[in-house]
Amino acid sequence: MLRLIVRRLLQLVPTLLGLTVLLFLWIHRLPGGPASALLGERATEADRRQIEAALGLDEPLWVQYGRWLERLARLDLGTSTQTSRPVWEEFTLRFPATAELALTAMLIAVVVGIPLGYVAARRRGSWLDAAAVSGSLLGVCVPVFFFALILKAVFAVNLGWLPSAGRRSTGIDATEVTGFSVLDGLLTGEWDASLDAVEHLILPGVALASIPLAVIVRITRAGVLEVLTEDYVRTAESKGLRQRVVRGRHVLRNALLPVVTTVGLLTGSLLSGAVLTESVFAFGGIGRFVADAIDARDYPTLMGFILLIALLYVLVNLMVDVAYSVIDPRVRVN
Amino acid sequence: MTIRTEKLDRLAELTARRDTTTGAGLWTEALRRLRGSKMALTGAAVITVFVVIAVVGPWLAPHDPTAQTWRDEVFVNRALFVGPRSGNWLGLDHLGRDQFSRLLVGARHTLLVGVVSTLIGLVAGALVGGVSGAALAFGGRAGRGLDTVLMRGVDMLLALPSLLLAVSVAAVMGQSLTTVMIAVGVVQIPVFARLLRGSMLAQAHADYVLAARALGVRRRRVVLAHVLPNSLGPVIVQTTLALATAIIEAAALSYLGLGNPDAAQPEWGVMLAQAERFFVPEDLLDQASLMAVCPALGIIVTALGFTLLGEALREALDPKLRG
Amino acid sequence: MTLLSVEELSVTFTGRDGGRRGPGTDAVCGVSFTVAEGEVAGLVGESGCGKSVTSLALMGLLPRRGVRVGGRAVFRHSGPDPVDLLSLPPAALRDLRGRQLAMIFQDPLSSLNPVVPIGVQVTEVLTRHRGLRGRAARAEAAHLLERGGIPDPTRRLKEYPHQLSGGMRQRALIAMAVACAPRLLIADEPTTALDVTIQAQILELLRELVDDQGTALLMITHDLGVVAGICDSVHVLYAGKVVEAAGRRALFAAPAHPYAHGLLGSVPRLDAPRGERLHPVRGSINDRLSWPDGCAFAPRCDRYTLECLDATPELTALPGATGGHLVRCVHPVGNEGSAAADTPTEREASA
Questions:
Q1: Nearest to B245 by CA among A220, A189, A268
Q2: CATH topology of domain B47-68+88-282+291-321
Q3: pLDDT one-digit tens code per residue, B204-215
Q4: What are the boundaries of each domain within chain B?
Q5: Which sign, positive or negative, has the C-alpha torsion A161, A162, A165, A171?
Q6: Residue ranges of the domains in chain C?
């Protein structure tokens, strides 16, 4: 197991190095070059000269890349041109909100998607199956931001059941510990703050969950349908095992293998979706900040966030791979 | 004797095979199944209507979609919009242009963005995936090396969230319709590459490929004549599905302000993104909301059409579901 | 004493629409046979003759939708009254399966759950039917594997199916099947997927286990070698009906149905004169009549006459034979006469 983790980590090195090269070249290709990228578009020509000299931009490209890499290692991702604060700080400040939102969405997708996909497969051809299949087809066809808009219009504005924006209501006094507002409320015993945070998470969470939910329903359904025809399920039945055991140990356990891999791969689309969802719900995470950065052409922020998000994606998929090898003994051999 | 022949005829008749479908090829069989699938027919119908509108839309449009003919009837500041009326069946947009005409003409740009960006992803992805798969399966040690390099590159692209990848492309190339298409296309490259590679590897170990190689068929011919044609099924399915994704992704880019900067030219994604700021959540049927809802419905229905056809195609091509 | 008595078992695949669009396909149409306690009975036939479907119907393992099952299968379990396996409620059948009625399958790799250790797959039967848990269950599982001829059973319990060889996997499956000393064990082509040397070992093991436990064995196979090696009685199936039933010796000595005759003639024999050709049964199972039209085997038969097409032949005692040798044929082999003589010219003409 440890060998597997180490090997996968080593495999990551070229991928990540390649990413840094890509991003480095990207900064260089930007209109105005890295100096403007670091300073923002409002910088004067004199400022630009000065910083180019200071940063050694007259040196060969690979030397510059080495320097840049060294700064990266010290988590020095530059300064946001929007807020004039270090990009790393901006990221750590906002990341918990996005992580909380993404986890909520994934939780909804998994908790609803797996049982729905399972039942749809068991009752293949029933109205429930038809509804699940059409729902999942529709789910991937509705633009996330439009779905978010409609959800907000119906459940927040018209019905008034849930808050329409932000992460917490005004008047709720919440102590910040980890930045995860639901968790913070639980840690400090401020139950009302936790509850309030959950209420604010539901609508953006559902909006963001639409695509992962659709994908998970489809993959679970297909997996169960395939596993049900497998010989080992017949063997399990021939042993007279209780239905609970046949379903859990023999059908679901195998049918969910592809779902595990999918959850990892969905992280990417989840983070893209978060940018859109957070914009609609004015949810103060990195998504919202990235959307603003795009508007303001805040390239240092974009570059830093892209790198960190890519790193995150790669690490999540590493964890998924390791988890997969725990549940599927066959991949451990090679 | 006559009785005998009669009886023998009866035997022959009774034993005549009832089904004559055995031996049909994968594609013939798939086509037969597609024709019986409601999903495929619905999808194909939607796509046909969409393509027809995209082609003849400009001639059907009652008004010039870019002309701000009724500019002085719309007051954005006071949230006064003009709803459906005779002559303007879907009302006016925020600049006093005929919404119906814009929708009709917009189909063309939407289709263009979808098709071109999918082609970019398909061609580049299939090239990388095909070379990679062929190299790994038949290229020996050097091939394995080439495959590793290519796949690391694909992993890298896969690690970048699609929107941010698109943002990066837009930042370097400047904002234009071409940028949108390239950005959306680049996102699809790793998907196509992995799919074709995996599919080719599965075929490379099939018995008929071993047989061909044992008979001394050249490697290049094995790849081009045997492995590649048999690996294309999943790629075709993905192409259909990618058309849907591309249209939606393009709309998301527009929403983030990275769409086609020439907003006078109607395109559904841009129309949706522009109308979004006038959206009145209290009343989804208000003209201000309809300005967003109409192009959104266009996008959803079209994407659904491609998705339905793609899924039906996937089912029709799945050998496990044949029979 | 009769343990299992199958009467007029029929299985029809109606398709997913429940048979509204047509009569469906008859996989088994009126199969009757009996298995005595402790007997090894063979069910023989080529692929597609309905032998696997028969076994799945008895186990209640056919899909519930799209399949129509008719007839009776009376099973004398250890309880007071015999039960009809085909009409038993699913829950009651679930209690019988794995305990009194067990089955092993053709492909040992696909029949084992790839992501669950062998040990769990053995102990789950013990937990379900014998209430064994924890260490006791593991000890018993190890004992069962050992009895199934698996060396180092304690280590094997922790391993996964892909780590075992084909023969070992089948031994593990057999260990699971006999874990509760069932009264009837159904073996569906248990040796087909294995190497020849392993085949003999597995047959030997099966024979041993059923002898020890007094378990009756229903051996489903297309391999006449297996039949010759292990079965006490044989039922030959063709197109979903039993066409011949006899003791092993009687059948091998004098097969009466042209199909059984042909099957034996298709097997190469060491004691045949050199240069003698094999006599394959021509055509395939697809060249058949439906039984109501006459004898289903007629299109492939060298002995058919007009009478064969009159009606479905009955399964009757073979004239002149002793000991319940039954055959479903108008012109059984070894009983020459009547119309059989006037066909050869025609046969040659059509060949």
A1: A268
A2: MetI-like fold (1.10.3720)
A3: 877 888 888 888
A4: 47-68+88-282+291-321
A5: positive
A6: 2-231, 236-350
**Quick one: closest CA in B to A23, which residue?**
B168
The closest CB to that of B161, out of A164, A271, A291, belongs to A271
Lowest-confidence pick of A167-181, B269-283, C305-319: A167-181
Task: Say whether residue B141 is in contact with chain A using an 8 A CB cutoff.
Answer: no
Rounded to a whole number of angstroms, the distance from the CA of C229 to the nearest CA of chain A is 26
- Beta-carbon neighbour count of residue C130 at 10 Å? 16
Buried-exposed string A286-309: b where 16+ CB fall within 10 A, e elsewhere = bbbbbbebbebbbbbbbbbbbbbb
Q: From B12, which residue of chain C is nearest by alpha-carbon distance?
A: C299
Query: How far away is chain A from the Cα of C284, in angstroms, using its nearest Cα?
Result: 27
pLDDT digits (tens, 9 = 90+) for C207-225: 888 888 888 999 998 888 8
DSSP string, B156-221: HHHHS-HHHHHHHHHHHH-SSHHHHHHHHHHHHHHHHHHHHHHHHHHHHTSHHHHHHHHTT--HHH
Given a cut of 60, is residue C282 above it in pLDDT? yes
Chain C contact probe: residue of A122, A226, A232 with most C CBs at under 10 A: A232
Fold for the domain defined by C236-350: Rossmann fold (3.40.50)
Q: Same CATH fold, C236-350 and C2-231?
A: yes
Contacts (Cβ under 8 Å, ≥6 apart) of B300: A138, A141, A142, A143, A146
What is the spatial distance between Cα A20 and Cα A73, in angstroms, rounded to a whole number? 11
Could you say which of A30, A137, A143 has the minimum Cβ distance to residue B296? A143
Neighbours of A257 (CB within 10 A): 19
Say which CATH architecture domain C2-231 belongs to.
3-Layer(aba) Sandwich (3.40)
Q: How far is CA A31 from the centre of its chain?
A: 30
Tell me the CA distances in angstroms from A237 to A124, C91, C93, C192, one per residue in order: 20, 12, 10, 22
Chains contacting A with at least 3 CB pairs below 8 Å?
B, C
Collect the ranges in chain A with pLDDT lower than 70.
30-43, 48, 51-52, 54-58, 169-174, 177, 332-334
Give whole-number Cα distances, A105 to A101, A201, A272, B134, in Å: 6, 9, 13, 39
Determine, for residues A327 and C176 on separate chains, whether the beta-carbon distance falls below 8 Å: no
